[in-house]
TrEMBL record:
<dbReference type="GO" id="GO:0032259">
    <property type="term" value="P:methylation"/>
</dbReference>
<comment type="function">
    <text>Involved in the cellular defense against the biological effects of O6-methylguanine (O6-MeG) and O4-methylthymine (O4-MeT) in DNA. Repairs the methylated nucleobase in DNA by stoichiometrically transferring the methyl group to a cysteine residue in the enzyme. This is a suicide reaction: the enzyme is irreversibly inactivated.</text>
</comment>
<keyword id="KW-0234">DNA repair</keyword>
<dbReference type="InterPro" id="IPR008332">
    <property type="entry name" value="MethylG_MeTrfase_N"/>
</dbReference>
<protein>
    <recommendedName>
        <fullName>Methylated-DNA--protein-cysteine methyltransferase</fullName>
        <ecNumber>2.1.1.63</ecNumber>
    </recommendedName>
</protein>
<dbReference type="Pfam" id="PF02805">
    <property type="entry name" value="Ada_Zn_binding"/>
</dbReference>
<dbReference type="Pfam" id="PF02870">
    <property type="entry name" value="Methyltransf_1N"/>
</dbReference>
<dbReference type="InterPro" id="IPR035451">
    <property type="entry name" value="Ada-like_dom_sf"/>
</dbReference>
<keyword id="KW-0489">Methyltransferase</keyword>
<dbReference type="InterPro" id="IPR036388">
    <property type="entry name" value="WH-like_DNA-bd_sf"/>
</dbReference>
<feature type="domain" description="HTH araC/xylS-type">
    <location>
        <begin position="107"/>
        <end position="181"/>
    </location>
</feature>
<dbReference type="InterPro" id="IPR036631">
    <property type="entry name" value="MGMT_N_sf"/>
</dbReference>
<dbReference type="InterPro" id="IPR023546">
    <property type="entry name" value="MGMT"/>
</dbReference>
<dbReference type="InterPro" id="IPR004026">
    <property type="entry name" value="Ada_DNA_repair_Zn-bd"/>
</dbReference>
<keyword id="KW-0010">Activator</keyword>
<comment type="similarity">
    <text>Belongs to the MGMT family.</text>
</comment>
<dbReference type="InterPro" id="IPR016221">
    <property type="entry name" value="Bifunct_regulatory_prot_Ada"/>
</dbReference>
Length: 349
């Protein structure tokens, strides 16, 4: 029989106490690490807002979490069934491999027996687990800059729609909770300088970054925490407007954006970002000039940090900030993009 989970507060208390009564009956997924554990795990305990609780290992996997290497939540099933142990080890070793029934046969196992064993232990077949594992790696590839179609095919999805819906789960939305009315929606926008990831609600844009920005995974995790997992995949109206205005920007027709922006940062950081928005296309400013503009002439380093923490590329034009001598300085999207953006904007002077 399935175990009806108690309230999250009760489960979190059990996690803190490492209560053995819940071992094998409840698991915790930690959004800040992407890992799921037993409630008896000896690892350092996460903050309550980063915890989601599940009744089975299968639910954790479907929600996009990977097994903890300290408490080994999948170990009991592996120890109880040699076939499960061998296949789990193979799945871990052969990352990205597209598993099929002939692979299982070549390893000396009967596919129907393996199917029943995995369903009994995890609530899913081995092939379903392998597919979810590929999808998790596709998520990491997308965050690292791979194109959507490449990640989709690598994950074994022929349908882009199915891939996007499944990817939404790996962004932190538990199975069954991804709906068309998600508070925040995420989607990709192709640009001449590479794909970008955008997050918006019904009225405001919250994030716009080039997909290969190294800080993007951490930014997505912070967004996930800020909105308590209420992030879906798809579009709200501001994203359609953004795509139209980005096309006009890159094609040389119009450098202006009217998409409402939502800033997530300290008051000082927001002040810096508002100052960046005021820099006209085709012009640049130094960090010291920005510091003077906001009335904090001695806060040049703090201005630089705020500039680097910008989460809305292009619309908050941190690429228009250069060194005091006019040289290009660091840019999260890559210096080559910064150079290209400045060249694109010269026509707008």
């Amino acid at each position: 029989m399935l175990f009806d989970l108690p309230e999250p507060a009760i489960l979190y208390e059990a996690l803190l106490k490492r209560d053995p009564d819940y071992d094998g009956r409840a698991y915790v997924g930690v959004s800040s690490t992407g890992i799921f554990c037993r409630l008896t795990c000896p690892a350092r305990k996460p903050r309550p807002e980063n915890c989601s609780f599940y009744a089975s290992v299968g639910d954790c996997i479907q929600a996009g979490f990977r097994a903890c290497k300290r408490c080994h939540p999948m170990a009991p099933a592996a120890e109880a069934d040699p076939a499960v142990k061998v296949l789990l080890e193979a799945l871990s070793e052969r990352k990205g491999h597209r598993w099929s029934e002939p692979d299982i046969i070549r390893m000396g196992f009967d596919p129907s027996t393996v199917r029943r064993s995995f369903n009994r232990h995890f609530g899913m077949t081995f092939l379903e687990m392998a597919r979810l594992e590929r999808l998790r790696h596709a998520h990491l590839a997308l965050a690292g800059g791979s194109k959507v179609i490449e990640a989709q095919l690598d994950a074994g999805f022929e349908s882009a729609g199915a891939f996007r819906a499944a990817f939404a789960r790996l962004m932190g939305t538990p199975p069954g909770s991804f709906t068309a009315d998600a508070m925040i929606r995420a989607d990709y926008i192709d640009t001449p300088l590479g794909p970008m990831i955008a997050l918006c609600d019904r009225t405001h844009l919250h994030l716009l970054e080039f997909a290969d920005r190294k800080a993007l995974p951490a930014e997505l995790r912070r967004m996930h925490q800020a909105f308590k997992g209420r992030i879906g995949f798809g579009r709200h109206a501001p994203l359609d407007l953004l795509e139209t205005q980005l096309d006009a920007y890159f094609s040389g027709r119009n450098p202006c954006f009217s998409v409402p922006l939502a800033f997530h940062g300290s008051e000082f950081t927001k002040t810096v970002w508002h100052a960046l928005v005021e820099i006209p296309a085709g012009e640049t400013r130094s960090y010291s000039q920005i510091a003077g503009t906001i009335g904090r002439p001695s806060a040049v380093r703090a201005v630089a940090r705020a500039n680097g923490a910008n989460q809305i590329a292009l619309l908050v034009p941190c690429h228009r900030v250069v060194g005091a001598d006019g040289s290009l300085t660091g840019y999260g999207g890559g210096l080559w993009r910064k150079q290209k953006l400045i060249e694109i904007e010269r026509q707008y002077v």
